Amino acid sequence: MSVVNTSQRQKIVIVNTGCANISSVRFALERLGVEVDVSDDVNVIKSADKVFLPGVGTAAAAMASIKQKALVETLQSLTQPVLGVCLGMQLMVETSAEGGFQGTGNIDCLNLMPGHVARMESKGVRLPHMGWNTVTHNNESLFKGIPQDTYFYFVHSFAVPEYEHTLASCTYGNTFSAAINKDNFYGVQFHPERSGEAGAQLLTNFVNL
Amino acid sequence: MLAKRIIPCLDVRDGKVVKGVQFRNHEIIGDIVPLAEQYAKAGADELVFYDITASSDARVVDKSWVSRIAQVIDIPFCVAGGIKSIEDAGRILEMGADKISINSPALNNPDLINQLHDVYGQQCVVIGIDSFYNEATDQYEVYKFTGDEARTQKSQWQTIDWIKEVQSRGAGEIVLNCMNQDGVRKGYDVKQLKAVRDICEVPLIASGGAGEIAHFTDVFQQADVDGALAASVFHKGIINIDELKAELTSNGVAMRKRHGLTAQAEGVNP
């Protein structure tokens, strides 16, 4: 297991999206020995070295919370590395098909990179896609030192299909984006904070970017 | 390929892990946090914590242990017991649990399932079902308040109907505890689980009856469940998780492997 480079003290901020998995992301980072702030303050987020965008629940609820906190423009203006986790990753693209239970139509997301979140094809597989599944990747940046076909923990029913910004892939029914990247924006569909040593390695890689 | 899950279940009472036989005679097994840590290190894929007193004695239960568990373990975990409202669920999820499981409160107020789905998403809504095989009527019946023998009662539901109902309301996973088998280690109720599997389109977790490795092989191969939950065989050291997974893998059941990370990962960023 590698360690985070703590020689230069970094300011790491988790955006308080009002969603529920903030504690588990914070605890995972604290286990790596880094200090973390949870904040919805524009200045705190802007001045961070690394930004985490967590999220569970529905895209509609999460976007409503981000809008209510007036954070949309702030998040769009960030130039430091940003990691979206699970729903946080899905919020990074243009639109999502995930409304409420009776929801129809597309939800506008943060548009940090092109892409659309669609409901996963349920043909022959059960949804939600819940559990440990294997990930193939490009061996670089977030996935440095992580073997191909390593298991990560997934819980979701919606996904970004494989496309030009796919950094890593997973197959469940169809193949979809397990991780995406454009410029400083990174997103992972799985939960690194709940993916054992491999997840800790990925978080370490991100913090060390 | 999605792996099948091995899920140790820790019954919690007053902050201690306990285990009874067929829901009775609870004995203390140990402290929660070190046990949780031990199971995460031993290769468990997920953990479930059932606060067994909470639903049945209507008091405010101290759940600070949820946060203490979230701080130390790096695998997903689910908390069950005493979650009666959106607010209860929110507190547990904010403390770091990945999923919440509801049982008796869903039977008393099925709308709670829809509400939890809409606020927190389907992925964290687990429905626990205590199902009892009634030999006299040859039917599977859903029971509630099973944490307290004096208050345990039959609900109005037959198991298959209740499973259809909770799915239509937005359940994300179902844990089916077969009460006749619970704690006696004679094997999972494969017959019932197969019947349920046919109508269950969300992940299905088998619970109740694990006594030896062959029981896990049977339930995965014959009932095609997504996970198998067990307590006493792990608490008492009867089954070692690594050996269990090796045996299941050799029988063609997909199990998570823990890769050693490569040398490239050492000493990141000079």
UniProtKB/TrEMBL annotation, chain A:
Domain Glutamine amidotransferase: 17-207
InterPro entries xrefs: Class_I_gatase-like (IPR029062), GATASE (IPR017926), Imidazole-glycPsynth_HisH (IPR010139)
Keywords, comma-separated and alphabetical: Amino-acid biosynthesis, Cytoplasm, Glutamine amidotransferase, Histidine biosynthesis, Hydrolase, Lyase
PROSITE patterns hit by this protein: GATASE_TYPE_1 (PS51273)
Annotated metabolic or biological route of this protein: Amino-acid biosynthesis; L-histidine biosynthesis; L-histidine from 5-phospho-alpha-D-ribose 1-diphosphate: step 5/9
Main location as per UniProt: cytoplasm
UniProt subcellular location: Cytoplasm
The EC number(s) this enzyme carries: 4.3.2.10, 3.5.1.2
Annotated catalytic residues: 86 (nucleophile), 191, 193
Reactions the enzyme catalyzes: L-glutamine + H2O = L-glutamate + NH4(+); 5-[(5-phospho-1-deoxy-D-ribulos-1-ylimino)methylamino]-1-(5-phospho-beta-D-ribosyl)imidazole-4-carboxamide + L-glutamine = D-erythro-1-(imidazol-4-yl)glycerol 3-phosphate + 5-amino-1-(5-phospho-beta-D-ribosyl)imidazole-4-carboxamide + L-glutamate + H(+)
The keyword Cytoplasm appears for this protein: yes
Pfam families, sorted: GATase
Biological process terms in GO annotation: L-histidine biosynthetic process
Any one GO cellular component localisation term in the record: cytoplasm
One of the record's GO molecular function terms: imidazoleglycerol-phosphate synthase activity
Function: IGPS catalyzes the conversion of PRFAR and glutamine to IGP, AICAR and glutamate. The HisH subunit catalyzes the hydrolysis of glutamine to glutamate and ammonia as part of the synthesis of IGP and AICAR. The resulting ammonia molecule is channeled to the active site of HisF.
Record PANTHER family: IMIDAZOLE GLYCEROL PHOSPHATE SYNTHASE SUBUNIT HISH
Subunit-level organization: Heterodimer of HisH and HisF.
Designated name of the protein: Imidazole glycerol phosphate synthase subunit HisH
Gene: hisH
UniProtKB/TrEMBL annotation, chain B:
Entry keyword annotation includes Lyase: yes
EC numbers on record: 4.3.2.10
TM helices/strands, residue ranges: none
SUPFAM superfamilies: Ribulose-phoshate binding barrel
Principal location: cytoplasm
Active site per database record: 11, 130
GO molecular function: imidazoleglycerol-phosphate synthase activity; lyase activity
GO terms, biological process: L-histidine biosynthetic process
Enzyme class: lyase
Record keywords, A-Z: Amino-acid biosynthesis, Cytoplasm, Histidine biosynthesis, Lyase
UniProt xrefs under Gene3D superfamilies: Aldolase class I
One GO cellular component term: cytoplasm
Catalysed reaction equations from the record: 5-[(5-phospho-1-deoxy-D-ribulos-1-ylimino)methylamino]-1-(5-phospho-beta-D-ribosyl)imidazole-4-carboxamide + L-glutamine = D-erythro-1-(imidazol-4-yl)glycerol 3-phosphate + 5-amino-1-(5-phospho-beta-D-ribosyl)imidazole-4-carboxamide + L-glutamate + H(+)
Function: IGPS catalyzes the conversion of PRFAR and glutamine to IGP, AICAR and glutamate. The HisF subunit catalyzes the cyclization activity that produces IGP and AICAR from PRFAR using the ammonia provided by the HisH subunit.
Record note on quaternary structure: Heterodimer of HisH and HisF.
NCBIfam families: hisF
PANTHER family given in the database record: IMIDAZOLE GLYCEROL PHOSPHATE SYNTHASE HISHF, IMIDAZOLE GLYCEROL PHOSPHATE SYNTHASE SUBUNIT HISF/H IGP SYNTHASE SUBUNIT HISF/H
Family: Belongs to the HisA/HisF family.
Stated name of the protein: Imidazole glycerol phosphate synthase subunit HisF
Species, as recorded: Alteromonas marina
Gene name per UniProt: hisF
